[in-house]
Design goal:
Blueprint (H helix, E strand, L loop, with lengths): L8 H12 L3 H14 L4 E7 L5 E6 L6 H6 L27 H7 L2 E7 L6 E6 L2 E7 L5 E7 L6 H6 L3 H18 L4 E6 L2 E5 L6 H9 L8 E7 L2 E7 L12 E5 L2 E3 L2 H11 L11 E6 L5 E2 L10 E2 L2 H16 L2 H19 L13 H6 L11 E6 L3 E6 L2 E6 H16 L7 E8 L5 H9 L1 H6 L3 E2 L5 E5 L7 H13 L6 H16 L9 H13 L13 E5 H7 L5
Parallel strand pairs: 1-7, 11-13
Antiparallel strand pairs: 1-2, 2-6, 3-4, 3-6, 4-5, 7-8, 9-10, 10-13, 11-12, 14-15, 16-17, 17-18, 18-22, 19-21, 20-21
The structure holds adenosine-5'-diphosphate (ADP) and magnesium ion (MG).
Length: 560
């Protein structure tokens, strides 16, 4: 007896739907991409109950005629490609002709459309069947409404993350779509409240401000370069403003938002020398290239692409970003680094390991009076940032900020022994400046946070924290924890505090460009002398640099 049956269209579509439209955000992505492909210049998105009750997208694009309004919902029905060759030169965002069919199989859909110089019309589907159609009056363009999403696939509903995650995912996809099309005016209305809006005036700076907030525009750097027919445009937010995760990096290829690990890594590498460890930059990179060099037909969601020239691309991206971020200040720093390395090697008391980590040894050695910083006389300050000293061996420069960081770091570390976790309960929930992604993350890992003494209420507001963490450091400590969990590290109090100490010390340190009084200089140097590792700041940058008399004389060609 033959047991194999071909699935009917509806069942096949429901199965495919699992891949194309797994959550409300992916439906919004598909529908907005359709509007973009229809040359819309205005796209308005309306959401009710995180998209489960209703998703409505209104565009002013070219629309569909009455026949196509029905054909559009058939599986593999598309106006965008027709031959195999077309597959190698895809310029539209859609091409697989399966999104509408998939959406239809898991929701109730109404589509209204009006093309130029013709009448408006509508179709209404339920249970994948046409239940009504006719004329309708509307502006030129298309309005598609998705109701009761996943009503017939309860398992899918169950797999949705918390309301909070779904909402965060919707906002995230909105941001990426808006960033990839500065010429389109987008708006997002959630539960009848306008949440986000862009102007569509091609002004990328105003767009970035709309999406990331105005503070990122400070020190933003841009590039626009073309090599072997590939155009790279970048908007590099200052490395001073970073995130604990990679999601601040947005990459487009020919206007398509993509997820691509090697290219994302190239962006991070370009930023590397300016970033603190475990921090990631915010940047937008737009790649324009011949579609022929690109395969976007890898996954139904079309988020992945394969570049035929990936390694050159990576190299170019990394070096362009590096060069864009480097300014003259940093070029001079390179010279110093050369000198610094040779000098540091000379110092017989310098330890091999530059990056100080908390360990038992610290307690024993911190009290001994090893003379690590030589006796020297203060001769003044340079640029209110570097303290200058001299002795019979030569000239010393101390970076006051780096030195203060080191001193504070060791101070905090020394305080961190034998901690017992006691939670301080807060009467009023603490307001923390965390991103929506952070809150989602906390929600998903609430146990680990509770273990260390961080207690949140049902709205992810902090209502208790470990007693050894000061209010001002709460945000930092939570971000640190997110990072550790994300990197699959075991989360321990010691580790958290060690990491935190590096940050706290950095924050508490004297800001560069502050002129220190003689008393402050003396106090800083005497504390630095007592540090276990006075030569680097907790992030590994040097605190002290020495130019020997010999080197100075060589620079003046007095000796060879
Ligand atoms: N907003 C829209 N405006 C005009 N045409 C649309 C719109 N949405 C969908 N269509 C038409 O419906 C077709 C099917 O859409 P879809 O299932 O998403 O497949 P694809 O985008 O891969 O072609 C599209 O090729 C397009 O012709
Ligand atoms: Mg599509």
């Amino acid at each position: 007896m033959s047991v194999i049956k071909q699935m009917d269209e509806k069942l096949a579509n429901m199965i495919a739907a699992g891949e194309v439209v797994e959550r409300p955000a992916s439906i919004i992505k598909e529908l907005v991409e359709n509007s973009i492909d229809a040359n819309a210049t205005t796209i308005d998105i309306f959401i009710l109950n995180n998209g489960l009750k209703e998703i409505k997208i209104v565009d002013n694009g070219i629309g569909l005629n009455e026949v196509d309004a029905q054909k559009a919902f058939l599986r593999h029905a598309t106006s965008k490609i027709s031959t195999e060759q077309d597959l190698t030169r895809i310029k539209t965002l859609g091409f697989r002709g399966e999104a509408l069919a998939a959406i239809l199989s898991v929701s109730k859909v109404t589509l209204k459309s009006r093309q130029k110089n013709s009448n408006g019309h509508y179709v209404k589907y339920e249970d994948s069947k046409l239940i009504a159609s006719g004329v309708d009056s509307l502006n030129e363009g298309t309005e598609i409404t998705i109701n009761d999403l996943f009503y017939n696939t309860p398992a899918r509903l169950k797999y949705l993350k918390s309301e909070f995650s779904e909402r965060a995912a919707i906002i995230d996809i909105f941001d990426r779509l808006a960033l990839s099309h500065p010429n389109i005016r987008f708006s997002l209305t959630i539960d009848e409240k306008l949440v986000k809006e862009t102007y569509g005036n091609e002004d990328y700076f105003s767009l970035i401000r709309q999406i990331y907030g105005s503070n990122v525009l400070r020190d933003i750097k841009t590039f626009d370069e073309t090599f072997s027919n590939i155009n790279l445009k970048g908007y590099l937010i200052s490395p001073q403003i970073t995130r604990s995760r990679r999601n601040g990096i947005t990459i487009f290829v020919n206007g398509r938002y993509i997820k691509n690990f090697p290219i994302t890594q190239a962006v991070i590498n370009g930023y590397q020398q300016f970033l603190m460890t475990n921090r990631y930059p915010i940047a937008v990179l737009s790649i324009g290239m011949d579609p022929y060099l690109l395969d976007v037909n890898i996954h139904p969601q079309k988020l992945e692409v394969k570049f035929s020239n990936e390694s050159i691309l990576k190299y170019q991206i990394e070096s362009i970003i590096k060069n864009t971020l480097i300014d003259t200040k940093h070029k001079i720093a390179e010279n110093i680094e050369v000198i610094d390395r040779t000098i540091l090697k000379d110092e017989k008391y310098i330890k091999e390991s530059l990056d100080f980590e908390y360990n038992e040894e610290f307690r024993e050695t911190s009290n001994n009076n090893l003379q690590k910083i030589p006796e020297m006389d203060y001769i003044g300050n340079l640029a209110s940032t570097y303290l200058m000293f001299q002795n019979e061996d030569g000239l010393y420069l101390i970076d006051q900020h780096a030195a203060e960081e080191r001193v504070n770091y060791e101070y905090y570390i020394s305080k961190l022994n034998d901690l017992e976790i006691i939670t301080n309960n807060l009467l009023i929930p603490e307001h923390l400046n965390l991103t929506k992604e952070d809150l989602v993350f906390i929600n998903n890992h609430i146990k680990q946070f509770n273990q260390l003494g961080f207690i949140f209420n049902s709205e992810t507001k902090l209502i208790g924290h470990p007693n050894f963490i000061l209010n001002k450091d709460l945000e930092d400590s939570i971000t640190k924890m997110i990072l550790m969990i994300e990197n699959d590290e075991e989360v321990t109090t010691q580790k958290l505090l060690n990491d935190l100490a590096k940050d706290i010390s950095c924050k508490a340190s004297i800001k560069a460009n502050k002129r220190l009084s003689l008393q402050e200089v003396n106090s800083l140097i005497s504390r630095l002398r007592r540090a276990k590792n006075p030569y680097t700041c907790p992030h590994g940058r040097p605190t002290i640099i020495k130019l020997t008399h010999y080197q100075i004389e060589r620079m003046f060609r007095r000796v060879v």
